[in-house]
Amino acid sequence: MNGSPLAPRRLDAAWQCASTPAGAYATPMALDACIKWLDAQVPGTVASAHRAAGVNDEALAQPFALSDHWYRLTLHAEGKRRVRFKGLATIAEVWIGDRKLLESDSMFITNDIDYEFTGTTTLHFCFRSITPALAAKRGRARWRPRLAQPATLRNIRTTLLGHMPGWCPPVQAVGPWRPVELIGESPESIDRVDLASRVEDGDGVVDVTVRFFHAQAPDDMRLECGEASATLVWKDAHTVTGRVRVPQARLWWPHTHGQPARYAVQLVGASTGVVSLGEIGFRRIEVDRGPDNAGFRLVVNGVPIFARGACWTSADIVALDASREKLASIFDACRRAGLNIIRVSGTTLYESDTFYELADEYGILVWQDFAFANFDYPSDEGFQRAVQQEAEQFLARTRRFASLAVLCGGSEVHQQAAMLGLPFDAYQQRLFTEQLPSIVAAMRHDVPYVVNSPSAAAGDTSSMPFGTRGGITHYYGVGAYQRSFDDVRRADVRFASECLAFANVPDSAALRLAPNASRPHEPRWKAGVPRDPGAAWDFDDVREHYLRTVYGVDVARLRYEDPERYLTLSRAVVADVMGAVFSEWRRKGSSCAGGIVWNLLDVRPGAGWGIIDVHGVPKSPLHGLARVLQPVQVLVTNEGLDGLDLHLVNETAHDIRARVTLSCLRDGAVKVAGGSCEITLPARGVERINSNGLLGAFFDTTYAYRFGPRAHDATHVVLSDIATGEVLSEAFHFPDLGVADRRDPVLSVTVEKHAARWCLNISTTRLARWVHVDDPNYYAEVDWFHLAPGSTRRVPLVARRPDVSMKPEGEVVALNGTAGASYTA
């Protein structure tokens, strides 16, 4: 409906804001004429207004929520209108002229004001200090988490972003963070549209309710969905409703398993003309809990899905809002990497309609936590009413989105209480076990509900909520708890809704933008490294553990003797570790049905949890995941004395006739053993081949027997299409992941423009391990990959800035190389 004259008018421009001491001014009429006003964009926050005025990011890290902040807008309107406030953070008053017409105490609730305008007037917001709300008594909490400070944030319906020491910068959310709209300027102005879809007997069914702001003279009105249409029925002078059936509708799929088919939906009437209501998809989502009722696997349209993705934070922690262009680039990076799910954690907030529209478009499932985390929440009647309104509004707003796949009560509430020693019965909250599931059942019965993340299997009262062998877990065995790769199989994870947190180092260009924090020995480096509150270690320490144990390096010595090498190895090791874990989880015979990495996006510059940096550039772990998460994929697992297992994944809807070729290489170039076979990969299946069967004779592919010196240093596996010869997937295995051997692979690179895009053609004579592009003006769309001897790979480049006029100029390097290959256009 965006752009239609019947749609609400967004009041985005010409706002101003000003900050005052808490309680200094009771009304807008009392505001001092000497107060300094800043231009402000809406939607936005006080912090984003200060950023636009030139305040640097460090100065934005202040307790905005403890002061008062005023917004004002001069507005011209005539007649009865409705002003809609889609999100006011957090204790807010709304004044029109000299009248206070609204008080709100939740940033997650939409509020409306109906007002008879008579020309030019001034609209004021006052965002009050949250200090009194923090001090209010709402019952005694059974536990006090360290995650967010102060603990009485449990009383307030606001995001925890900005209140979590060690997790994110303390930029506190204050202001009109969601759009402000004016409704009713046209006689046919549409107030609300409620769209819902379902699949019924192979057909797609769309239910619609359209409510007009002004009373209408009922006329013929139709709903069109694709080629199907149906006449709507007037319920009253403001409301028209109806249903359209799309015969044998194309289904919406996550992009890894099919096309995310969508249908345009239009309202057609004599008075309204043709009004676009957006697009809608048809799908069925269920949960398979396995024969022991302890598993958790998403089933979309009857097909079991291996869900893999990352947890969402915010694309802009200052404004809490991001452009469609920025969000689209993130979704595109996820799709290219093979990710098919994003979890919006309870520590954050509810995302915009644009976010869900893009998830639908790109075929990305969304696991949505309700905005609750860690706390023992109040149970009084007022809090329950606020939760009811918040949840119902969110579900009504997102009812039309096919991508919404899981609704979860919140994050780490059960885990927090259990880790503090409370028994099962002591940490149950009616909020999660009764209130939220009943709302979901009434409004989104097509979306599975999970009581908490993590949580034990349904009915299991004896296991820890974070236990790995049943239910939903947060798996940090490999990662924060510094376990070896063997733990991945031993843990028998069923579904990891969080996993694999590391301090992920961004590329050199990003580090150059932070000159005082670009090296690990600089004091400000640690400001960008996340840590758990109260822990004596941080996530640099976690990454360095794997540098020592996997790569066999003296970390401290390397860090001060060769900091560039330290950074390169730091980037490579997380790609190796994440790739190894997901290869184990996707193998044939695995009990795991999904893993969601913590986190997708950085919220500040530096070595954060994100696998995409604060500038929107993918980091090495996202590229490492892309090597093992594609819909058609060959994976390698080390089975010790049994050699290598090759797992051939085909998530597509059709069989594939393929050839598997295995080559064991010495010195990165000389083939010392090998073999191949033809195989049919069944649709939606995983096949397994052992290396011994391909080789036809004994060869110590894993160097487990150790009969003399190692005969090879790498195994290269290629999966190719028999009919076309196209390479479908490649995988590499290194019997020794150590990095001491640095024989130059002899890289060469040329630059060309291909389809109006700059590209690099990268070649090597020997196997090149973890090839990486370093360019100050561009980053590689495909990066951090292994390159087989004698092969060439075309790598598209992406401009780091939209206005870049510089040509590509940089260097291609490899982990096992002694020198890079420079290039310039």
Account of the 3D structure:
The protein contains 15 helices and 42 strands. The protein is an alpha+beta fold and 825 residues long. It folds into five domains: 9-183, Galactose-binding domain-like (Jelly Rolls, Sandwich); 190-280, Immunoglobulins (Immunoglobulin-like), CATH 2.60.40.10; 325-623, TIM Barrel (Alpha-Beta Barrel); 632-733, Immunoglobulins (Immunoglobulin-like, Sandwich), CATH 2.60.40; 747-824, Sandwich (Immunoglobulin-like). Strands 1, 2, 3, 4, 5, 6, 7 and 8 form an eight-stranded antiparallel beta sheet that branches. An eight-stranded parallel beta sheet has the order 24-23-22-21-20-27-26-25, with helices on one face. Strands 9-10-14-13 form a four-stranded antiparallel beta sheet, with no helix packed on it. Strand 13 (233-236) and strand 14 (239-246) form a beta hairpin. The protein is globular.
How would you briefly describe this protein structure?
By secondary structure, this protein is α+β, with helices and mostly antiparallel strands. It is 18% helix and 32% strand.
